[in-house]
Amino acid sequence: MALIALGVTGGIGAYKAVEVCRGLQKAGHDVVAVMTRSAARFVGPVTFEAITRRPVITSQWRPGANADIEHIAIADEIALLLVAPCTANTLGKFASGIADDFLSSLYLATRAPVLLAPAMNSNMLAHDAVQQNLRVLTGRGVRMVEPGEGYLACGWIGKGRLAEPAEVVSAALDMLAPPASILRGRRVLVTAGPTYEDIDAVRYVGNRSSGRMGFALADEARRRGATVTLIAGPTSIEPPVVAETVRVRSAREMHSAVMAAAQSADVVIMAAAVADYTAATRAEDKIPKSEGPMTLVLERTPDILADLARLPSRAASATPVLVGFAAETGNAVAKARAKRTRKNVDLIVANDVSAPGAGFDVPTNEVTIVSEAREQHVALASKERVAQAILDQIEIILTRTRTAVPAS
Ligand code: CTP
Q1: Which residues are catalytic?
Q2: Are residues 112 and 80 in contact, defined by beta-carbon separation less than 8 angstroms?
């Protein structure tokens, strides 16, 4: 967990900084908001105070702020200075070393990496003065999140609007990536989402999995330097950008895709809610209704995780670390323990899907990570935080049992 200073300057996109702040917190970081005078005209500091649960810094002249020379103290504590939106005025001040408010003084005082998300009218952005300031800052190692194109608040259509909050958050997280993970250079395969088992041309049997947990795991593994293959069932939320994404629909399709990709994987995480049963026959056309009840005959799908555990091993130290999930209603840990032994896998992540805020189709989860050596409870937290805890355990297993240097 790191402390990030989120600078908010006076652009119409200032309201989007609220979402940026939430995204950073969801990833497990602490945020201190620093607002310029004009930013406070667009969004009230109270909004940021409520979200960050910290006083918002709006001026270096606030009584008490100089007892420990606040901009110097914060400059030392932060792991990243992020400014979103960053106006042409603030860009200019940063480029020329002007320190006439808290944010511009913080820029000079900190040695933390700096990320700016410029936002302004397209003519201002194209102006030589602004372009030159961007070059100066980039030359100094400052990173930029490119402004997007589209409808601008001034009524123009063009380049200059603040990048989407998710893009700003992901650029910030990349800059905070932990430097040395045993996952760096390893191949991680993650499955996510539900599978849909077709009954006829228009109907299917599915489940409520959103894919969020698997997506969070794939993104976190990528952040730790792994080459990630994501195999995802049908989901309505966007997957993270990883090395390779394969879309599948049914359990059978997921089985083939996983078996093919697992050959070269160092870790396989089965976060998908794979259907245990599929329709015994699939009608080509839509089945018309008839009087009376209808019987649907289902047959078992192949158990992907169990099949992975049965794969003939390459060298013992090179078999992939296998991770499964156990969605249970009640007695989750005991059932997960039994499932881990039965399926012969390294880790089972148990969750009680009947607990509030845990399981399917919610942004949070509460799990117990069960391995042979230990059981770790992770209290209710964002799925991003839970993903970090799971990958920490996977790193422990990799370090203990698969110490061979990964093939490049
Ligand atoms: N899984 C799989 N292939 C299947 C079904 C499930 O690989 N056909 C994986 C899931 O991705 C998950 C784990 O196996 O990682 C779930 O184990 P499973 O024994 O199928 O549990 P549930 O279906 O949740 O419950 P139960 O069998 O206890 O009814």
Answers
A1: 154
A2: yes
